[in-house]
Structure prediction request, 124 residues.
Amino acid sequence: QVQLVESGGGLVQSGGSLRLSCVASGRAFDMKAMGWYRRAPGKQRELVAHMTSDGTTTYADSVKGRFTMSIDNAKKTMYPQMTSLNVEDTADYYCHAHVRVSFVVERAYDADFWGQGTQVTVYS
Prediction:
């Protein structure tokens, strides 16, 4: 019922900035939380940032002060603004959404969805 599409990844020089986006689309759902995860080569997936529907945002220690999350609730789009990028930020970045699906209102349920990822490569 819900599809997440990431964009904005690419190649950037160390110290530069990127703005990613994640667009959620579908029918009869309410966004409860959205987040970004990343997986660097040879490493496990880790949380980058997470934002709940009330605006509470949590950042990984490794990106605090450099990454800023914003959400356009009307468009159901999440925009991580990434600044002061370094080579350690090189990874595949994945959008995640926790939603309340209410296509059948009397049988509404919570569900999690993932995008397919966008690559970020930072070079020296």
User: Anything to note?
Assistant: The first strand starts at residue 2 and ends at 7. The chain has a mean pLDDT of 93. The two ends are 41 Å apart (CA to CA). The chain has no helices and twelve strands.
